[in-house]
Structures are given as C-alpha cells and as structure tokens.
Sequence to fold (285 residues):
Amino acid sequence: MRLPFEIRNPSLLDELVPYVVATPFNLPQLNLNPFGVPTLPEHVIDPLRLDSETFLTLLQRLDGLTFGPEGMPMPRWVFYDCAELPGAIYGLARPAQTLWPRARDLFRVPDDYQGLVPVSMYVAIPMPKAGMWFGHNLSSLAPVFEQEQVTDLDLRGLGSLTKGLALKAFQVQEFWGATQWLSKALYIHVKFGPLNLSTAWTPAHSESETLTYGFRVTDEALRASMGDPTVTLARPAPDFWLDGHDQKGMIALQDRIEAGERFVIPESPRPVAEGGVRVPITRVA
Fold:
C-alpha cells in the first residue's frame, strides 16, 4: 500500500494491514479508506460478536505492553464501555502466521489462532458536538521493540502513522486529548501542530500531572504528523519552558489558564537528564 504523499517510514504499509474495531451502528460513520488506504471487510472487528474475543484480548495485551509499565493499563470493561461500544479503534496489524517470534511471545498468541495481531491502535470517542472527538489511547509496539532492541522490522513512525490515519478514518474535525507532561506520546501529539492547552494540572484525572490539549484537524496537520516533508505548519516561538517534573509550575500555569489566558505547546519537548523533559509554552492571548 502507498499513500499519495511521502511519510516517514513507508515500509510500514508494506508490512502491516489496517483494521478497525467498531459496532455495526458506529461503522457507517467511519471512512474505511483514509487517504486511499483501504481496510478490508474481513479486518473490521465487531466487538458484539463472540468470534472477536481473541483479537480483542490481543488488543488489551498491546495496551498492557504500552501502559502497564506506567501503571495505567486499561481494564477489560473500560475497553468495552469507553472505547469499543461508544467509539472506534483504528490500528495496524500483522497476520499471526507471519508475526515475528518475539512479538508472538509478548502477545502470548494462541497456537491455533490465524487472525490478525494488532501492533498499534488508536482509540477515540465521539463527543456531543458533531466532528469533535476525544482521543483515549495511542498504543504501539515500536517503543517495546526499541527497548528490547528487537530488529525484526523498522517500526519508526508507527504511532504517528496510526494516529494520523485514525483521525482521517474517524472523520475528526476538532480533536481533544489528555496526556502526562512526561509521556513520550507528547512527541507524537505535537506533530499535528501547536496544541491548545485547556488544563496544565488536572486533579480530576487519576494523574494530576495531566494536560488537556486540542487542535483543529486538517489534512495538512495529518500529513505533517505522518512525516510529509512538503507540509510546514506554523509554529510560534516559545515564551518559556516548563519542566516535566515541576508541579508548582504546572499549577501556576493552570491558574493562568483559569484566569482566561490562552497557551499552546508550539513544538516538541526537549529531553533533559534522567528521563525528564522541558516542554515549550507560548502565550497566545
């Protein structure tokens, strides 16, 4: 498969195939051919059917591989209640019979299973306003393979590609998400352009060091996120930098947001010693 524009790692679409998890009543709202990349009918998973059980179990294991080390894996009921039933899941997968041996071990794939094994997924939930969606979960096997130094396949750009295709498939016009200041996913989210901040410190979340962000979804933003070198997004210069461990700084920024000031994260964070980051912040109003 090929996209009609350049991406960071085109080999991913040669090695992997798209899948969608959606109920029959949500499926008609989706675009199963985002940017010309088709999702085959046999790769549409209905969570209401018994024969979807093994695939959905593998999805939960992918989530555990991604978020288990961070202490935030999704319970099974959250997948169903908050993702599969009200929203949709888009991702890339590989047939079980051609799966890399280390991935087969990580997923504990049953010996007799012949279906797809998901190596990435993006979960999103529609909000009451038409065209507005909340991004619930981005998972990718890429950082797991990188940490374990597995070289079976070059998975660079897998998370960005998955999210970009997913937002096109879900026909999102306005996007909202939540992540943690220290999350590596923030490097992916900012590829879509400057992120409008709605919270910088979020006690309503189980992790108070959570930021709530949003952006308008355009084809240019999606293409930029996937690595199209012909797209350049406008990014304002940072006014200051927030350390990813600076709780007092997060609360101070939250106070300014609640007082009516507006801020964006204009570009990627910069790593610092011992796994920390400095996140750029720009005041826009």
Remarks:
- The CA atoms of residues 202 and 208 lie 5 Å apart.
- The chain has two domains: 1-172, 178-285.
